[in-house]
């Protein structure tokens, strides 16, 4: 169940990053970025992940979970999404301020 949830999160967040210029992964020498602080609503009856974090390495999601529960690669760029809500709505991915 956890891997299904992680996959659902990764798919949703990949869509958000592709359509929301303000949250696109910055270019880093190591190719890693961690996005932290958003309330992540996965859907499918799963509870929201408060104060979430997700790691993107070389354009791929490698970890999704609560802030502090994911391992941030050394040198990763950090992107603060505090105060934002990321959710799946009507087949679309939405980042809400």
Report on the structure:
By secondary structure, the protein is an alpha/beta fold. It has one helix and seven strands. A four-stranded mixed β-sheet has the order 4-3-1-5, covered by helices on one side. A three-stranded mixed β-sheet has the order 2-6-7, with helices on one face. The chain is elongated, with a radius of gyration of 12 Å. The termini are far apart. Mean pLDDT is 75; it is low at 17-23.
Overall pLDDT level? 75
The helix/strand class is alpha/beta
Uncertain runs are 17-23
Tell me roughly what share of residues is in helical segments: 10-25%
Topology order in helix (H) and strand (E) letters: HEEEEEEE
Number of E-state strands: 7
- Discrete helix count: 1
Instruction: Estimate the global geometry from the Cα principal axes.
Output: elongated
Largest sheet report: 4 strands, mixed
Strand order of the largest sheet: 4-3-1-5
Distance between the termini: 29 Å
Strand content bin? 35-45%
What is the CA-atom radius of gyration, in angstroms? 12 Å
């Amino acid at each position: 169940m956890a891997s299904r949830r992680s996959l659902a999160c990764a798919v949703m967040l990949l869509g958000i990053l592709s359509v929301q210029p303000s949250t696109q992964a910055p270019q880093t020498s190591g190719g890693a970025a961690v996005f932290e602080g958003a309330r992540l609503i996965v859907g499918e009856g799963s509870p929201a992940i408060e104060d979430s974090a997700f790691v993107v390495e070389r354009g791929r999601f490698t970890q999704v979970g609560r802030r502090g529960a994911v391992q941030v690669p050394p040198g990763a760029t950090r992107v603060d999404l505090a105060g934002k809500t990321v959710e799946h709505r009507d087949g679309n991915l939405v980042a809400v301020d």
